[in-house]
């Protein structure tokens, strides 16, 4: 989905600092590949110079929670797109990334589930991350999307993003863009590292294949408790 946002964004132009960017905010592992920024690791990855030398317009992806956003973001008010995903799929997907991909976690998948619900994972708590951005959903420069919506009707979601970014494309162009940004095409374009495919499954409800009924129940109870005072609900 991130590639489509970048392509849609190309005819926008903001001159000042953060206004040259479309910020794509998401909790870890919601399906959007990195462009120039990866949060606290930006300098370590050697991307800061590349970002500073990239002409407008730019699309920046980050996992940062709301309270850690740059202060200038609120003054300049660039376009911000946030993508939320149900916590069960997030937990499963992140486990495979840190275990099979980065190889920095040696515990079991159940160990990771417990850490996730105990808010002891990177960018946690998941619920606080989502709820904070949900409060901004009615801002003119903010678009709140869900991973499940993007999968359910990719064409309509691409049109929604194009409208939000004030980009003007014909139906045929948007259809081409939708196909380009499809999971299958992204999987073909991505070169796996260390035999790990970043684009692993790309579906909603993949947790059913790897999460026991007991953990599904635990996650559902955990989600109900933390989202009980919000009108935001996950599709699954």
Overview of this structure, please?
The protein has one domain: Rossmann fold (3-Layer(aba) Sandwich), CATH 3.40.50.300. 42% of the residues lie in helices and 9% in strands. It is an alpha/beta fold and 236 residues long. The chain is globular, with a radius of gyration of 18 Å. The chain has 11 helices and 4 strands; from the N terminus they run αβαβαβαααβααααα. Helix 4 packs across helix 5 (109-117) and helix 8 crosses helix 9. It has helices at 2-8, 48-52, 72-76, 87-101, 109-117, 126-134, 147-152, 154-164, 171-180, 183-189, 213-226; strands at 21-26, 58-62, 80-84, 142-146. Strands 2-1-3-4 form a 4-stranded parallel beta sheet, with helices on both faces. Helix 2 (48-52) links the parallel strand 1 and strand 2 (58-62).
Rounded radius of gyration (Å)? 18 Å
Q: Tell me what the CATH architecture is.
A: 3-Layer(aba) Sandwich
Structural class: alpha/beta
Percent of residues in helices: 40-55%
Give the strand order of the largest sheet, numbering strands 1, 2, ... along the chain.
Answer: 2-1-3-4
Terminal residue distance: 20 Å
CATH class: Alpha Beta
Number of domains: 1
Query: Strand share of the residues?
Result: 5-15%
What is the approximate shape?
globular
Note the main sheet.
Answer: 4 strands, parallel
Determine the CATH topology: Rossmann fold
State the total count of DSSP E strands: 4
> How many DSSP helices?
11
Mean pLDDT: 81
| H and E string | HEHEHEHHHEHHHHH
